[in-house]
Amino acid sequence: MEYTIGEVSKKLDMSTYTLRFYEKEGLLPSIKRNQQGIRKFNEDNLYWIDMVRCFRDTGMSLQDVKHIVDLTNEGHDTLEERKHILQEHKAKVQQQMDNLQQHLHKIDKKIQWYEGDTTACEIQSRV
Fold it and tell me: What is the annotated signal peptide range for this record (predicted)?
């Protein structure tokens, strides 16, 4: 099945501007065009767009995303390098999640304090 950029925009809830930008930056390999120059997206393209969005939403730089795309285009011999990049990114995301969880706990304690639990905001050691 093929999709136009407008259909992809609606299907993935992304702006056409973002899709064009990602293509221009080389983050979306192998977008085909018809004889009129209209982009035609297939299921593989949708998968890549979803992965790029995942990487970007989790804080990966455009440069790192581009590097993964370039390595992917080089073929099977780059699997280990791609895996290493993703393992490092995963560790960063996990650290961010741990930090957010700690902050969420503090926010919960503050809410408890506002609800009348005056012991909720006592300073606790970080052991």
Answer: none
CA-to-CA distance for 27 and 67, rounded, in angstroms? 9
> What CA–CA distance (Å, rounded) separates 75 from 126?
46
Does residue 50 share a domain with residue 101?
A: no
Residue 85 CA to residue 126 CA, distance in Å, equals 31
Same domain, 107 and 51: no
Rounded to 5 degrees, φ, ψ at 31 are -80, 125
How far apart, in whole angstroms, are the C-alpha atoms of residue 83 and residue 71? Answer: 11
Query: Do 47 and 95 belong to one domain?
Result: no
Domain-terminating residue out of 62, 87, 110:
62
Q: Where are the alpha helices (DSSP H) in the chain?
A: 5-12, 16-24, 43-57, 62-74, 79-114
Report pLDDT digits (tens) over 50-94. Answer: 999 999 999 999 999 999 999 999 999 999 999 999 999 999 999
Angle between helices 16-24 and 43-57 in degrees, nearest 10: 90
CA distance 121 to 114: 10
